[in-house]
Amino acid sequence: MKVLLIGATGGTGREILPRLLAAGHCVKAPARRPEAVVTVHENLQIVAGSVLDPDLIDQAMQGQDAVMSAFGPRSLKASDVQEVLMRNILDSMKRHDVRRFVNLSAWGAQESHKRINIMQTVLQGLLLRNIFADKKRGENLLFASNIDYVNVCPGRLLNKSPRGGVRASIDGSGISHSMTRADLAEWMVGQLTSDSWLRQSPVIGYDKGRGATTSNYPSSS
Question: pTM of this prediction?
Answer without folding.
Answer: 0.87
